[in-house]
Amino acid sequence: MEKKLEVITANCPQDHKCPSVDICPVGALHQEGFSAPTVDHETCIRCGKCSNFCPMKALVLR
Q1: CATH class for the region spanning 5-61
Q2: Kind and range of the H or E run holding 6
């Protein structure tokens, strides 16, 4: 089974620009305002950089 990036909105404070959006090497993370980021699963390469970088553990590669 292939891993998939999930956004755990309960862990995301949603009160600032998500720092992990800029870490994604392929631009698969997007954020509207200060909402929790969304994932473009077609673009995501499942490298884990964003999930490793997220200080709140709101991005999980499962």
Answers
A1: alpha beta
A2: strand 5-7
User: Which amino acid is located at 18 in the chain?
Assistant: C
Q: Domain-by-domain residue ranges, the chain?
A: 5-61
pTM over 0.85: yes
Q: What residues have CB less than 8 Å from 26, skipping those under 6 apart?
A: 43, 44, 45
Name the amino acid, one letter, at 30. H
* Separation CA 21–CA 54 (nearest Å): 10
What stretch of H or E contains 60? strand 59-61
User: Sorting pLDDT into bands at 50, 70 and 90, what band is 28?
Assistant: very high
